[in-house]
């Protein structure tokens, strides 16, 4: 029995690492696996697609720091600090760190996969579509020609003209993946997860407003990232709303799963410790010819699970 208990944590760790690695490879190459996004048409008088092209206020690198790297580093540092203050076994000391990190990474993959499916399947055009694509129809005409002005015709057969718009290959590739907003989804996921984790840990300075202020800062940064996508004409407001809800919902679900897993782990440890104490007490009672009641924590922990 003792050998199986020693082998169980490394096996679980290995399985989790393999699964997370496979999922990360999947989401990072999702566009290649899925193929080109759905090609949507447009109306020539659609004013929601006539905004100018602007550079990102929040660059992709800054987004990854705000939504992935900094939250992950903060969670590792916080859990390591809190774990080393507890008088528990070596594997138990590292387990809260491991549990938080694995669920955070799983939620990141979960959130990114759902976002990718939405982008590739919907194929919604960005607000700067006309500025980037400069679409021309198969007969050589465009929306600027008199024959297309005011015509309520949905155009699906068109080709982008990068020589006219000076658009790069990357700009053309991203012009029809507007829904949902990936920036909003990633920012809200990472920062809302940290805010919920601070709430669950009641850190720092439990009972004061310090922790709520830190949570507010996390949500405020995520909100700024989201609205910057509308400011930069990268997304429609509904894209940002959907991405924000996706990220926040993923954070709530994964944070809850991590909390439940930790509760189960703590109860199992309490049960194991209670059984050891009961065995020692029962042994001493047998020597004295007495009957001792079992620890009620066994029943309490089972009920709480």
Automatic annotation (TrEMBL):
Transmembrane portions of the chain: 12-31, 62-82, 209-228, 240-259
Gene Ontology terms: cellular component: plasma membrane
Keyword Acetylation among record annotations: no
GO molecular function: phosphatidate phosphatase activity
Pfam families in the cross-refs: PAP2
CDD domains: PAP2_wunen
Keywords from the named record: Membrane, Transmembrane, Transmembrane helix
Keyword Transmembrane included in the entry's annotation: yes
Origin superkingdom: Eukaryota
Family designation: Belongs to the PA-phosphatase related phosphoesterase family.
Name assigned to this protein: Phosphatidic acid phosphatase type 2/haloperoxidase domain-containing protein
Organism of provenance: Drosophila yakuba
Lineage of the organism: Eukaryota, Metazoa, Ecdysozoa, Arthropoda, Hexapoda
